[in-house]
């Protein structure tokens, strides 16, 4: 609603179907002026390919991001197999992986976790892409070195670093309804020092709805009400590498802004599926992350890597009485200030035994804190007459070890064990995780692989102590994942892979309809498979496609055939061609089908509904000039103006036209 420009953020910033490692071609790195931050990865392999060769790992490069014009994290990984991006009442994209919700996916920035201390989730729109060198996503089974929490997988964002004397970029973009996005960056390297600093600023008044959308009393305009978003970001990295044995790095990120949460478009008490519209806004948010990383090689065999970090987020969350967004006279209206803080330290010593393998230890120690204060209305026409104040904290600790071995050429083995402790204010819990994997190249171009993982996720501060839904007696979530498949290289620089998976989850935490509090669900099962293929039969062309099948069931609820908003089927395709004259057309297609949902809590009878299947076609045309230093581009998202939803009653953007320019030095 308020529009302002943060000059500092405007003056700073950096500037595919995304592919499983070993199985799908990755686009060539397009930004030759920067490199990947070398302290940005948690160690999950030694001199062999290690645990990642047995798992499902997808890689997204800076060139992939640039080709599709992805401006936020959710856009950058939306075409990955197993990924479902949905937007509901919270107004921010949620990234689900193989049916697991965002809170079950660990998000890392240069190896440091960014998940919220309150609910374990994250807002991917606050993570701009201009500073990203690479995204690595592990789906399903993952290394014990990541710690607890990643039942669905792990996303690690690796930022850029300077690689030459000096380089920079500035870009500007606008589109339908006159949003703006400006980005810039500066990077340099001199002797043992390097730095990279980037920033971006964007302001969107509201996204356009499809012409096929039928207007309602709540949504009676062509642009989604209360869908405005303002965001300003700054990121910087400083590296010091005095010799081949020592590397030190410092990373900071700062973001601030505001956004609206679009209300449900159906205001009908007789609709058994539609929730009552809410009029909520995040009037301001401010986040800061500081991290220090180091890597030291004591000998040719012994190495130590570590991180120390602090993350904090402050938010002003207001729930208004009506669509005027100026009063608090309705029962349960509120003004809240939410503050979360995370402190942590992690160490990873690794020893290389040569032909006898590599052993890596990990210790992770984290302290989480949540504070909530504000006012709420206890009844209609009693504005903000009741105070609400809460402050909670806990700590989580992990000790883990992982051993990898390659006894024969083409054969790799890995096994790991981790133990985790959660110390709450008046109680504690502990549990363990295990991973094991094997990969074998039965032929020169054919790899078989299998992995197993037992993982856990402790309840978050919000799960335990949330003001309305908290339950301090929750049990720890536990999962067992089995996956295996084959990866095949083909002629003409082509590849194909097939991965099948089965996951069983016990004590999954969900909100109970009857008590309106968090409860543990006895058992949930996910089964599915992913097929991915890619070809680059000439140097100028890149084609990629994937299909994901997912079946999810709640075993202790006979009425539900599958979890809500977990699509059975997803197909993606993308392609681009780089003409020698500098012209590049890019196209992507995404088909999502067979998503189901269930009646709301107050419905008289239980019933099941189905979202419409949808196809999204995006096109981008770009032209490079002056040795690729100047680029102009034009694009259309949702070119068919599809009217679709990812949650019932929450329509998504229709056709969106944009264009921009980029200058590199």
From TrEMBL:
Location(s), subcellular: Cell outer membrane
GO cellular component terms listed in the entry, alphabetical order: cell outer membrane
Listed transmembrane segments: none
Residue ranges constituting the TonB-dependent receptor plug domain according to the UniProt record: 53-154
Cited InterPro entries: Beta-barrel_TonB, Beta-barrel_TonB_sf, Plug_dom, Plug_dom_sf, TonB-dep_rcpt-like
GO terms of molecular function: siderophore uptake transmembrane transporter activity
PROSITE patterns: TONB_DEPENDENT_REC_3 (PS52016)
Membrane-related topology note: Multi-pass membrane protein
Ranges for domain TonB-dependent receptor-like beta-barrel: 235-639
Alphabetized Gene3D superfamilies for the sequence: TonB-dependent receptor, beta-barrel domain, TonB-dependent receptor, plug domain
Primary subcellular site in the record, as a coarse category: membrane
Keywords: Cell outer membrane, Membrane, Receptor, Signal, TonB box, Transmembrane, Transmembrane beta strand, Transport
Signal peptide limits: 1-26
Key word Transport present: yes
Source domain of life: Bacteria
Record has tRNA processing as a keyword: no
PANTHER family: HEMOGLOBIN AND HEMOGLOBIN-HAPTOGLOBIN-BINDING PROTEIN 1-RELATED, TONB-DEPENDENT OUTER MEMBRANE RECEPTOR
Family according to the record: Belongs to the TonB-dependent receptor family.
Name under which the protein is recorded: TonB-dependent receptor
């Amino acid at each position: 609603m308020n529009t302002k420009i943060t000059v500092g953020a405007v003056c700073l910033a950096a500037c595919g179907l995304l592919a499983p490692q070993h199985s799908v071609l990755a686009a060539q790195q397009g930004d030759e002026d920067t490199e990947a931050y070398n302290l940005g990865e948690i160690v999950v392999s030694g001199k062999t390919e290690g645990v990642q060769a047995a798992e499902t790992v997808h890689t997204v490069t800076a060139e992939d991001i640039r080709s599709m014009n992805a401006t936020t994290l959710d856009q950058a990984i939306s075409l990955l197999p197993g990924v479902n991006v949905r937007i509901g009442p919270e107004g921010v994209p949620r990234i689900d992986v193989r049916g697991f919700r965002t809170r079950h996916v660990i998000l890392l920035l240069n190896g440091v976790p960014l998940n919220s201390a309150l609910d374990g989730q994250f807002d991917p729109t606050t993570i701009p892409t201009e500073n990203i060198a690479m995204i690595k996503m592990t789906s399903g089974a993952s290394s014990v070195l990541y710690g607890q929490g990643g039942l669905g997988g792990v996303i690690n964002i690796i930022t850029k670093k300077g690689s030459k004397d000096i380089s920079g970029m500035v870009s500007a973009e606008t589109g339908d309804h006159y949003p703006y996005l400006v980005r810039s960056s500066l990077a340099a390297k001199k002797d043992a020092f390097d730095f990279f600093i980037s920033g971006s600023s964007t302001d969107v008044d509201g996204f356009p709805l499809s012409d096929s959308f039928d207007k309602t009393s709540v949504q009676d305009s062509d642009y989604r009400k209360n869908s405005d978003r303002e965001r300003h970001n700054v990121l910087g990295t400083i590296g010091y590498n005095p010799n081949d044995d020592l590397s030190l790095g410092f990373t900071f990120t700062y973001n601030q802004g505001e956004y609206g949460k679009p209300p449900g478009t159906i205001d009908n008490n007789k609709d058994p599926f539609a929730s009552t519209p809410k009029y909520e806004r995040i009037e301001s948010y401010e986040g800061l992350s500081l991290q220090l990383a180091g890597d030291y090689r004591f000998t040719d065999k012994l190495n130590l890597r570590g991180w120390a970090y602090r993350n904090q987020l402050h938010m002003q969350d207001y729930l208004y009485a009506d669509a005027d967004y100026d009063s608090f006279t309705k029962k349960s209206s509120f003004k809240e200030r939410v503050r979360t803080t995370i402190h942590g330290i992690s160490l990873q010593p690794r020893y290389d035994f040569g032909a006898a393998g590599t052993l890596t230890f990990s210790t992770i120690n984290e302290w989480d804190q949540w504070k909530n204060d504000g006012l709420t209305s206890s009844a209609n026409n009693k504005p903000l007459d009741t105070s609400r104040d809460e402050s909670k904290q806990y700590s989580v600790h992990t000790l883990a070890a992982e051993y990898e071995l390659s006894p024969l050429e083409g054969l790799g083995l890995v096994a790991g064990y981790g133990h985790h402790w959660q110390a709450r204010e008046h109680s504690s819990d502990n549990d363990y995780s295990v991973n094991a994997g094997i990969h074998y190249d039965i032929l020169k171009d054919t790899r078989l692989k299998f992995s197993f993982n037992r993982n856990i996720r402790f309840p978050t501060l919000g799960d335990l102590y949330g003001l309305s839904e908290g339950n301090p007696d929750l049990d720890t979530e536990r999962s067992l994942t089995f996956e295996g498949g084959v990866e095949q290289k083909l002629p003409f620089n082509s590849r194909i892979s097939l991965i099948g998976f089965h996951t069983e989850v016990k004590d999954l935490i969900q909100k109970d309809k009857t008590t309106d509090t968090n409860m543990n669900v006895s058992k949930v099962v996910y089964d599915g498979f992913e097929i991915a293929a890619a070809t680059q039969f000439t140097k100028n062309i890149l084609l990629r496609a994937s299909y994901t099948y997912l079946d999810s069931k709640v075993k202790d609820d006979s009425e539900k055939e599958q979890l809500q908003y977990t699509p059975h089927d997803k197909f993606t395709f993308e392609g681009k061609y780089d003409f020698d004259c500098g012209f590049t057309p890019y196209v992507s297609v995404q088909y999502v089908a067979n998503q189901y949902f269930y009646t709301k809590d107050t419905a008289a009878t239980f019933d099941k509904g189905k979202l419409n299947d949808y196809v999204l076609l995006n096109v981008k045309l770009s032209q490079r000039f002056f040795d690729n230093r100047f680029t102009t581009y034009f694009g259309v998202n949702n070119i068919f103006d599809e009217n679709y939803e990812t949650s019932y009653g929450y329509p998504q953007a229709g056709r969106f036209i944009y264009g921009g320019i980029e200058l590199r030095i």
